């Protein structure tokens, strides 16, 4: 069963797009400055992360205006990893695999990193609050349940603060659509535009969890590509006309994360984590753009060659 | 210590207890299932309430229906009703176990049929109310109704209960409450009506028209229940939620505001604040909505639905640290707090009291 969420309410449109009267400048500005913008950027050529880039190698536009990159740092700061694990009834046959996978993932973290585990079925549960890397995750607490509250599970991680000297990586594992969240899709998407965390979604069965929206034509599941990663522009309806990306995909890509379809939990995490910990953090002071509202970002690599760049799509300023 | 009128089983049990030095836990002593059953029933008759002698519901149910029934009927007539009640209480306790529920609910209907052989009593009334509350606890209201329940032989429990106590408002209005609860997942404004209530099985009307007819019928029933002193607050809450779902947001606000002002039930008030907030959100009144979520969280900070909504609002309005703290509190609760958003069980509020009364009534 799927739930049809209402369209974005006029109040949130007002908050997110126009006046922003309620939005304080907490996000997306980086902790150290209220006006500096920071972007996590990973650069790949094929399956290999590209190292050794400098500020001269990047071009950043903010609402179409090219920005002066003030510094580039390698993201070697400690990471808080939140794993969000779907334990709804459709995953019942994979419970033991999930337990061993999460235990294996915990062993991949560096000593300075921390791990939080959120599981969800109809309700989200924090299986482990942030704990030091190396602590054994209490995976025996995993139990599969009924319906699926994907939004609430992701929100349980996305809405948490990150300490000043750390970065936050969220990796959600889910194979199904949302049907029982209290949180609506528009609120989760709005939160994604405000967060500094990077969210990745791994769908072991190779499909994007689809949530039907009242004003959108849901993409037929058969049209979901099984390759990874997939972007919104790759997807088209039966007529060949591009259709809106599933909401969860929009949420993921807004944070600068990706969808990972049809592969194993541990190997996907390994790649995501390696990417995240070897990514660049670009800092710039916005210039020539409005001080408030939604800012669309583009990041490109100004070098010869074919690069895949992952970075957040934009930020809300107020 | 043992019931002198317990017959052969009681004698055997007395012997066993004597051999064990009087300990009440005899699991170390080999016993047949029949002996365990009689021992269990007699211990309940003394006020003990442990089902631990059976580790699976199938054995318990089958022995209560055979050995238990014989034990009841073997008692001298003045004691037969008390023994019958003891057996009924054991069945209720078994129904409390979430994992056992599907196996135990046929036992409840079997007990219900046995209770109905005799004249109604206060024990039976409380037993009926408690058994209906357990359907709410387990989210299996279909057990109460004549249709949609599997297996069909164990359905329609509500009609059986109501036939015995037609003036009991909690039974009279349980029908409409049960029908609403089987669709409780669709708590969003603007749902297609056919998802809000099940379409009628056969009709010349479209699914949509059928659904609208069911919604209107439900609203009329809730209107009648809304003025009842016992179930009125719950009926007004449910009417407010249903009006929110069909996008009658003004009507919903009136009902929910009234519930908040008059109800003393914290679970009812919590859900009223929460749904009032959702309705205000749908109308674009974000700050007012946040105030309602905050009121819900103040009632119980460990419930996640309100905490999540409030945290999202705080997060999006620049109060990220507060958002995080709210979620820290909600997710730290162990065991997790039951969430009325996930399951509102209006019939559950008297459950503890009914069980206590039932235990007192069977104790010798």
How many helical stretches of chain B? 18
Secondary-structure-based class of chain B equals mainly alpha
Order of strands in the sheet with the most strands of chain A? 8-7-6-9-10-11
Q: Please report which band the strand proportion of chain A falls in: under 5%, 5-15%, 15-25%, 25-35%, 35-45% or over 45%.
A: 25-35%
| Order of H and E elements of chain B | HHHHHHHHHHHHHHHHHH
The biggest beta sheet of chain A is recorded as: 6 strands, mixed
Q: What would you note in describing this structure?
A:
The complex is a heterodimer of chains A (318) and B (364). Chain A contains six helices and 15 strands. With 318 residues, chain A is an alpha/beta fold. In chain A, α2 packs parallel to α6 (265-277) and α4 (185-194) runs parallel beside α5 (247-254). Chain A is globular. In chain B, α1 (7-19) packs across α2 (33-45). The N and C termini of chain B lie close together (11 Å). Mean pLDDT of chain B is 83; it is low at 1-27 and 199-203. The interface between A and B is large, with 43 and 40 residues.
